[in-house]
Amino acid sequence: MRKITADWIFTLATEPLKNGVVILDNQGTILDLLPNAQGLEEVEKLNGVLCPGFINAHCHLELSHLRDRLPQKTGLVTFIKNVQQFRNAADEEVLSAIEKAETEMIANGIVAVGDISNSSISFSQKQKSNLRYHTFVEVFGFNPESAEAIIERANNLLRAAPQTASVTPHAPYSVSEKLFKLISNSELSIRNPQLLSIHNQETIEETKFFEDKSGEFLDLYKTFGLDISFFQSSGKTSLQTYLPWLGQAKTLLVHNTFSSQQDIDFAKARGENYFCLCPNANLFIEDALPDMQLLMKNQLPLVIGTDSLSSNTSLSILDELKTLQHHFLEINLISMLNWACKNGARFFGWDDLGTIEKGKRPGLNLIQNLENLSRADEVKLTAASSVKPIKLCKNYF
Ligand SMILES: [Zn+2]
């Protein structure tokens, strides 16, 4: 049994506990939470804030070997061309990068991951269950004629995926209406019927393409030799075009860098949509950030992802939060932890993770080097803030 106290415990389920104590068994299950350490013996005293393990809601393990390989701030269209050009590599190189990436996530306090897969190469690592994974088997295919063959291949991949998995569309500009509809009707997604993910409004070029068939995406299709004469612009933004094709599925909208109030209203009126922020990838690729005031004003269910090492220099949820803190000074730590822990667990249906509550086994992170520790709702991250996962047992999952 362990008894641990810190300046604050942000349980994300109760009021923050100043100098509270969390009691855990040897497997990391929470046995009790106490308001103070009075009368207790052998209490470990730590400096900083204790919070649950992080949920990385958006990652691409299979692109980990592209770390430090692609130029930054090129814009999304050039970035996609670069990924396609450089992603092929020997299996050993890819597998070794995947293993290292997972080790890095564990060291950074991540306990569970929503991971995008276009192939089965990450499955052997996920099979080891060092981390909890939901695999999004992601499909591309803008030409409607190939939709059936694509979904069949994806369903085969889905059957082979360890832990939980579902078939998911890549992005509005890379998936045909027909393929969108096949995905949302895919019977084989039954292992997690409600979970979809899509790269949404990551660049203004996506809006131009859907509103009037203009912008840089035309050049991308030309590069890939795809005749898109069949495509007619909808006159609406991408989100307002494709969301009705997805039915009522629970969907993770990833990036949202160029989403407007009208888009948010549209999404709120349809299905259960979560909004995933990957700020470091947005700066890496587009040198832009989502409109945080807009997203927060709308009280959206926000979650946090790292995206892949092809567009990030680390796989660290804390690094994403530090970037948000740096650019949006008014956000407090406790709000961001709700996104990074509680909301992520809720999206994926991981009821045992995301909050520090009796009976749960959420993992425990210690965040240090903070500002304004005297009041819970004023605690902020600094450039020097760091996270240390509390080692609770050998094999966590
Ligand atoms: Zn991504």
From TrEMBL:
Residues 49-382 form the Amidohydrolase-related domain. Keywords: Hydrolase. Gene3D superfamilies: Metal-dependent hydrolases. It holds the Pfam family Amidohydro_1. InterPro entries: Amidohydro-rel (IPR006680), Metal-dep_hydrolase_composite (IPR011059), Metal_Hydrolase (IPR032466), MTA/SAH_deaminase (IPR050287). GO terms for molecular function: hydrolase activity, acting on carbon-nitrogen (but not peptide) bonds. It comes from the Bacteria. This is Cytosine/adenosine deaminase. It comes from Solitalea koreensis.
